[in-house]
Amino acid sequence: MINLLNIAIKAAIESSREVLKIYEQGFTVSLKEDESPVTTGDLKANEIITSYILPTDIPILSEESEKDTLEKRKNWKRYWCIDPIDGTKEYVNKTDEYCISIGLLTNETSLLGVLAAPSMNIFYFAAEGIGSFKWKGVYEDLYSLLDSENIVEEIMKNSIQLPVKPALNPYIFLTSRSHFSNLDQEYFQKLEREHEEVQMIQMGSAIKIGWVVEGKANEYARLSPVNFWDIAGGHAIAKYAGLKIIDIASQKEVTYNDIETLKISGYIIKNI
């Protein structure tokens, strides 16, 4: 697993460097068939990440690549699941709340994950048997590690192990910036009845999962369906820190069994 985590970390660092450069220098935006935006940053990140993980001979499921048929996916034992830029709307709107997300999935769980948010100076990584961590240095210092043979060993020298238990007052609740709905508002009102004081923060991307894991927030709820690639990386960050991401339909830990739609119904993660 450590060799695959090495690859995922290097892919995330190099792609995030290019994504940040494009973010700062300018990019073009087009619309996909589902009317969601895609930028030159998304496509460049997808190209870089794919170049790193393709030699592993593990199948790849990416938001920005053509999907293999259902018949092929049924035979996958494990596969890379990547979102080259999670939070493309935030990337376009220049809120800084976007990240590169890389996960390694089975039908039952996420085996490893990396979330890289260069504009927020955030880098999380995790894997089965290794644990969950956050880089505590300056983001740009990660670039100098790309030539390291064992980047996991090097990066862990300047990282903190997760989770961090929150000591927050008021209770901090995270929700989506771009997908906020009446359901989210009703859930927030429920929390207000359960806690003495609650503060709601709207943010973009799976970085919200990392915020909960590192104790910057108590809870994040996504109450509408999401694609596997929206959660694959973040799930590992939570799981190997000892936290559970609960599917709102099954009320059990998130799985990836619906290989036809590649979606889960929504989820909640807490750190209290």
TrEMBL record:
Coiled coil: none annotated. Mg(2+) binds at E63, D83, I85, D86, D230. InterPro entries: CysQ/Inositol_MonoPase, Inositol_monoP_metal-BS, Inositol_monophosphatase-like. Keywords: Magnesium, Metal-binding. GO terms for molecular function: 3'(2'),5'-bisphosphate nucleotidase activity; metal ion binding. GO terms for biological process: 3'-phosphoadenosine 5'-phosphosulfate metabolic process; sulfate assimilation. It catalyses: adenosine 3',5'-bisphosphate + H2O = AMP + phosphate. This is 3'(2'),5-bisphosphonucleoside 3'(2')-phosphohydrolase. It comes from Apibacter adventoris.
